[in-house]
Amino acid sequence: MATYIDWRLRGPGVDLCNCAFGCPCQFNAQPTHGKCEAAVGFHIVEGHFGDTSLADLHVACTFAWPGPIHEGQGQCQAFIDERASEMQRQALLTILCGQEQEPTAFFAIFASTVTTLHEPQFVPVEVRTDRAALTASIRVPGAIDGRVEPIRNPMDGSPHRAKVVLPEGFEFAEADCASASFNTAGAIALDYVGTNAMLYDLHMGPSGIIRA
C-alpha cells in the first residue's frame, strides 16, 4: 500500500462550468454541449502539507476538455496565490497534480484526464463565496473574472434554491447550485454567461474527501 505525505485542505470552493444548471456530469451523463470547460477556485481556510501550512491561500484553475472529462485530453492552467512561499507553491502544485493522493481520489482523478499542463502562474488570486446568498467570485487580474449569482425564477426574479447531494461524491457530498458568468484569458480562453455554478465546502486529503 502506498504511503502519502500527510496533507489537508479545508475551505469554500466554487466550480464554474459551461454546462446547464446542475451539470450532467454530476449524474454520470454527457456534458450539455459535448465538451467540458471550467474555472474553479477555493480559499484554504485550514490546510497543511506535511509541516508546511497552507492556511489562508487562494487557488484557481482553468480547464478545457474536448469531450467528456473521463475521455481525457484535457488542458489545465493553475493560478496560485502570489503570497505563497516557494514551499507552499510546490506543495499546492503537488496536490493539484494528484501526486500525493490515492488514484481513486479527486485531484488524482482529474490529473489523470489532463494531457496539457500549462505553466502555473503565481499571481494575485481571490476566491470569495457566500452560500447563504448563493454568490461567489473568482478574481485573477487579467486571467479570470468569474461571478456567481442565484438562479432566478423566470416569473418573478426571486432566487431559486437547489442542491446536488452526492453521498458517494469524490469532490463534494453536497453543493448549492447557482448561475455562473465567467471569462478567462491566458492559456485557456473561455467566455460564458448564465451557466452552471456549484458552491461547496472543500475538505480533502490523501484518501479523498474527509467526511468526519
TrEMBL record:
It comes from the Bacteria. Pfam families: DUF1326. This is DUF1326 domain-containing protein.
